[in-house]
C-alpha cells in the first residue's frame, strides 16, 4: 500500500497530485513487476480532503497504471462541523465520526468512476455494522476500522461480524459478496432509491 495521505509527514499529501503520483506509482509498479512480484497487490491510500476532481484523477491514474485498488480514506485535516473550538483538538488528522460522511462520499465517487475494475477498501468513521454495510453496498470489498476498535474495545470486531451477518441475512443474501456495490448502478453510479 502506498500511503500518500498521512497528514503527519510534511509535504507527503502533495504527492497525491497526479503529476507527482504518476512517476511514484509507476516506479513502484515497475519495480514490483521486474522483481517478479506481480502477484503482490499494489494499492494507493488517499485523503478525504482531496477535491472531487482529484479523486477522479487518482482513480483514472490507478486504472491507467494497473494498480489493484484504492483505500479511501486516511484521516482528515478538515475541522468542518466540529462543535466547540477547533483549535482545542490540536493539529493533525482527525479520525472516526467526523470523517464518516466524506469517506463514504469519496468511496461512492471512486465506485462511480471505476466500477468493479479496482478493489476499493473503505476506511474512515466505520463504527457500527450499518456503517460497514453502507460502505460494502457502496462498492467496498473490504472495510477497515481503527477508531471504532479503539473506542469499541476488543469485542468490537465480533459485534461488527455478528451485526453484518444479520444485515446480510435480512437483505436476503447468502453471502456478503452479493452486497458489494448493491447501492451503485450498473455503471458504478449510485442507484436510485429502492433499486435493490
Ligand atoms: C493514531 C493513528 C495512526 C495512523 N497511522 C497510519 C499509518 O501509519 N498509515 C496509514 O496509512 N494510515 C494511518 N492512520 C489512518 C487510519 O489507517 C485510517 O485510515 C483513519 O484513521 C480512518 O479510519 P478510522 O476513522 O476508522 O480511524 C492512522 C490513524 C490514526 C488515528
Topology:
Blueprint: E1 2-3, H1 18-34, E2 43-46, H2 52-64, E3 69-72, H3 100-114, E4 119-123, H4 129-138, E5 142-144, H5 147-152, H6 156-170
Parallel strand pairs: 1-2, 2-3, 3-4, 4-5
The structure holds flavin mononucleotide.
Flavin mononucleotide binds near residues 74, 124, 126 and 148.
Q: TL;DR?
A:
With 196 residues, the protein is an alpha/beta fold.
Tally of structural domains: 1
Distinct small-molecule ligands in the complex:
flavin mononucleotide
The count of DSSP E runs of length 2 or more, i.e. the number of strands, is: 5
CATH homologous superfamily designation: Aldolase class I
Biggest sheet statistics: 5 strands, parallel
Number of helices: 6
Low-confidence stretches: none
Beta-strand share of residues: 5-15%
What's the CATH topology label? TIM Barrel
CATH class: Alpha Beta
Helix/strand structural class: alpha/beta
Radius of gyration: 17 Å
What is the first-to-last residue Cα distance?
33 Å
Structural features, described:
This protein is α/β, with parallel strands linked by helices. The chain has a single domain (2-179), classed as TIM Barrel. 39% of the residues lie in helices and 9% in strands. It is built from 6 helices and 5 strands. It has a 5-stranded parallel beta sheet, covered by helices on one side. Strand 3, helix 3 (100-114) and strand 4 form a beta-alpha-beta unit. Helix 2 (52-64) packs across helix 3, helix 3 (100-114) runs parallel beside helix 4 and helix 4 (129-138) crosses helix 6. The model has no long low-confidence stretch (mean pLDDT 92). Flavin mononucleotide binds next to helix 5.
Amino acid at each position: 500500500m502506498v500511503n500518500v495521505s498521512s497528514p503527519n509527514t510534511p509535504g507527503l499529501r502533495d504527492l497525491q497530485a497526479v503529476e507527482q503520483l504518476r512517476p511514484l506509482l509507476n516506479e513502484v509498479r515497475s519495480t514490483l513487476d521486474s522483481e517478479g512480484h506481480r502477484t503482490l497487490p499494489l494499492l494507493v491510500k488517499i485523503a478525504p480532503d482531496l477535491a472531487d476532481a482529484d479523486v477522479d484523477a487518482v482513480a483514472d491514474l490507478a486504472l491507467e497504471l494497473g494498480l489493484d485498488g484504492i483505500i479511501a480514506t486516511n484521516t482528515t485535516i478538515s475541522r468542518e462541523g466540529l462543535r466547540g473550538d477547533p483549535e482545542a483538538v490540536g493539529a493533525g488528522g482527525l479520525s472516526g465520526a467526523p470523517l464518516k460522511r466524506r469517506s463514504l462520499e469519496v468511496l461512492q465517487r471512486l465506485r462511480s468512476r471505476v466500477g468493479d475494475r479496482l478493489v476499493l477498501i473503505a476506511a474512515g468513521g466505520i463504527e457500527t455494522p450499518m456503517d460497514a454495510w453502507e460502505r460494502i453496498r457502496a462498492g467496498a470489498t473490504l472495510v477497515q476500522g481503527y477508531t471504532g476498535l479503539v473506542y469499541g474495545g476488543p469485542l468490537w470486531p465480533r459485534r461488527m461480524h455478528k451485526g453484518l451477518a444479520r444485515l446480510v441475512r435480512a437483505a436476503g443474501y447468502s453471502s456478503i459478496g452479493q452486497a458489494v456495490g448493491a447501492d451503485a448502478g450498473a455503471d458504478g453510479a449510485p442507484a436510485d432509491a429502492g433499486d435493490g
